[in-house]
Amino acid sequence: MVTIIADSTCDLSPELIKRYGVEIIPLQILLGDDAFEDGAGVTPDEIYRWADANSATPKTAAPSLETVATVMGRVLESGNDAVCLTISESMSTCANVLRLAARELGAENRVKVINSENLSTGIGLMVLSAAEMAQKGASAQEIADHLESLKPRIRASFVVDTLTYLHRGGRCSGVAAMAGGLLRLHPMISVSGGKMSPGKKYRGKMKRVIGEYVEELTPALEKADAHRVFITHSGCEESIIAAVKDMVSSMGHFEEICITRAGGVISSHCGPGTLGVLFVAGE
To answer: What global pTM score does this model have?
Structure first.
């Protein structure tokens, strides 16, 4: 048997984590001198309040080797092999920490570590696909091979309400030139080759901007893998989320529409009001 391990940036809901038996390894969120595990001790809304009060973007860090070894060791002691998915290696050293843990546990032959080259539910799509294979009895190598072929088909993009967090964090090239808030720009940020980059720039109120964004995604969504689509946000108005769900539902294409709220790490870098529609491109 195989257990799927993912880091906390996969932004899966507790219900999905439980349904698929996924083990989650939390990254760290640093608010000044205080450190928290992603998903424990501090909420995204508390992170935003801290950031506004301090005019600073929280720092984030990979999990400790000890934390990773504890989770991985528990899986291996159960008799299962492990397939691990992490946030893009261009954004974090998380994947390398998992590889080091496997080496320290003497289990490199039982643990596959996959650099997702993605973030948020772009990773989540891969995690659930891997978990479904594991439930059907696939081997770790079979799952790893599948994930490598799935990786280039993941479509992850989102629109941000404020450029402040991405600008301060410095993880999205091209944002600095747009950071003059007076223009009220809302760029679409896409993930490609493991890196974030800005695309089309929208102006106006977020409800209209998000509507335009989803309309422009519609041709690709209608050709997407119909199994699942994610609507992931970092704290949007309920009316905006409901409108997006209605637009996606009206296509009559997807078997499952999952709505998730981004965790602390992703929220720390993209800020409040961000929303994305993430899916797997059709073959």
So the answer is: 0.93
